[in-house]
């Protein structure tokens, strides 16, 4: 328990340090939100100066940081100059969409990877194993961007919708129709994202299970005539779980990168496009929320993986 | 579930009869296969304890794995094997073996710390053996495990323990409990006590000895330590580079070895009495000069020819067994020469 | 066996690079030349058989004209053949230090030869793909090289200095690997000016992508060097009084060669994709300069590009290039395993 509190404090500290770093880097970078506006003939220099003053961009660095921090403490998470509203209002629905996309495809990818990896390792060299390995090698050679394009092509040629998380008439739909609408919008992005993370997962699951099958205690169990489902469930899989949980923790990072590409390419209203947009127009508070959100997501993933490791290993209890 | 080999066929047939066992590994680099075991045969009667004595690398583990069908898939094995008088088919598959293993044949592995799953309660690991072979309920399996633990002088609360919470001796008893759970007719043990300290080792050996007497269980005990085999076996086979060198009743073989290899091997042992009485500078360990031949370049005749102190020209031919007392010796010179006192 | 296959793929990849390197010569049009009347014109394939069914030895193209029934589409003008000629004179252009006065091939067709059609602004897709691929592939190859070099340096530092340097660098490796590389890349990129000039952007992209790729090669180099240092003959050489520097350059570093080569082949496609992704999101070189990424991003815009099949050629080209790198890496890995 104290360890959990320690980890939480560590994470919070990490986020604070990170936010400061982002502020410093943003200070070092040339220009601010209104740099692009200078090119706009409708914006006079005086107007831009007043706007800068209005948003407090002329203040020294520490004042700006403290203003942002107090805004976070109030639960607003800063203020987006581009959208003229608190960052929370922008961030939360976007984050929910990214979580939906990432979570669903993670689930899908892990289920497929576990099934194919375990089945392949159990009959290593069999037809299923070999065809899985070939498919995985092929999938590994297709970049996620091109997979996303293929997904778009599929969407164009089928009835499946693409772009956005819901249809335009979503608000007018009944509850059941809403659910179907959401699922229809999820199908292609989730499939593509799952496919991008699948090859690495399948290979890892397969290797881990193969190693577990070769572990001395599994061979000993076979020597006692323990076999089939009992051997797999009680002996092989627990032994293979350790590296897989570690991989689970690491895989969050790759998943986020993949989801950024897919969100960008398919117009999924997740965090990715928001962060990208805030980067190009230097909407600092939104950018901060995005970066901190992504880091928190990674950190939670690591925390879950660590917790699971402690949970399954009896040795950590003593 | 019917057993592939009935546990109670002809009471007079030996528990294990093995003939012409050959194990070879196809080599990636060398032209010829590595022959690890070459034409071995032996018989173990009901309740009899047979030991296999050999250096590491002599192929004794391959022997143990072959008679339990556990050789790795790349190994090529041919043999004539009868368990309880019923022949094991040459094409015996995993399904055949897994019903035999743990039921008719119990197996004890080298290191108890590696043979137990670190993440599973040891009681369950014993119960798993029973559940795999008996159509019993979980509760009756549990009761049986409790009986076993008691029989092996273990506290009953060990059932809930994980392997890392146990001592080496306790772990070895759990491994024994797994092997003994289904009351096998034959217990195959591959150096099970090597990792234990001497005191625990003797306790475990006495326990096994007692149980094998009580249950009329045959033993195939593999070791590099003549001292261990002297404690527990009735008969010893001496193995070198995949072949028998000599076999005979434990006492006479250890007291008066006939084969030059056995003799040199026993000379290597530090005699406890001698060590104590002799002054420090004269305590010398003898070694057999040279190294065992690699399994891919074996001599055509006697396997020991390169290191034997009493070689003759006829040693280039494959020796056939010479009856010596109640045993046999695979040496062309056996019986014709009394061996000297070594080099 | 493995080396033979690897060499074959290496030659193939080299050939691709040479062709795109000579884009000024090979491309029949300038990448920025707009012909507004030819918006989304379909490809004009080289033909040998004309509209009357006659065979001609010299391939030719037909000029394009608007379909009178459907002014959004184009049809061939079949009354006149425009033979494809090689080494055609053109306006002088700079290619590296040379001034070119020729193009590899071209026609007298008033609408020009468009092997892979044109884009929304009537720019020749084939030429743009050549120029874009040059940028993307070379950015990838150079960034991959940079990553391998950085990894080699870091891995060597780990082994020669050991102690806290080793521990620190390995922690950094873990961190770099567990972070989402794309967010990292875009994050760092965002704090740098969105320069309009293609050359600084090109250099910047290479520096960024290469720096972020150091982690895996560093860890592998460290592993190889650690093992190599324990080898008997290295220990023996040390025993004879060989200096550490001599050992490092004469005995240890040469052993990392295979690992580095394989890593390079694995990293380059990743770096190409990094550049492509940056350009895809508009963070790479800016219009009118093409990159495979910006050429692909056109597909996701709502100008009807999706419905023109030839607009997928950049994606196909990218896929083929990435696949070639993967096959090279595969061959190299097999070579190492045997």
Report on this structure.
The complex is a heterotrimer of chains A (318), B (343) and C (338). Chain A has helices spanning 2-28, 45-54, 61-73, 87-122, 127-140, 144-157, 175-213, 216-223, 228-266, 271-280, 284-312, and strands at 79-80, 85-86. In chain A, strands 1-2 form a two-stranded antiparallel ribbon. Chain A starts with a helix and ends in a 6-residue tail after the last helix. With 318 residues, chain A is mainly α. Chain A has two domains: 2-87, no CATH class; 90-317, MetI-like (MetI-like fold, Orthogonal Bundle), CATH 1.10.3720. Helices cover 30% and strands 21% of the residues of chain B. In chain B, the strands form two sheets. Chain B has an eight-stranded mixed beta sheet with strand order 6-7-8-3-9-10-12-11, sandwiched between helices. In chain B, strand 7, helix 7 (198-215) and strand 8 (218-223) form a beta-alpha-beta unit. Chain C has two domains: 44-113, no CATH class; 129-337, MetI-like fold, CATH 1.10.3720. In chain C, 41% of the residues are buried. Chain C is α+β, with helices and mostly antiparallel strands and 338 residues long. In chain C, helix 1 packs antiparallel against helix 12. A three-stranded antiparallel beta sheet of chain C has the order 1-2-3, with no helix packed on it. In chain C, strands 4-5 form a two-stranded antiparallel sheet. The model of chain C has no long low-confidence stretch (mean pLDDT 84). The N and C termini of chain C lie close together (9 Å). Chains in contact: A-B, A-C. Chain A binds chain C through residues 25-26, 28-31, 137, 140-146, 149, 152-153, 156, 249-250, 252-257, 260-261, 264-267, 275-276, 279-280, 282, 287, 291, 294, 298, 302, and chain C through 177-183, 186-187, 189-194, 269, 273, 276-277, 280-283, 293, 296, 299-300, 306, 312, 315, 318-319, 322-323, 326-327, 330.
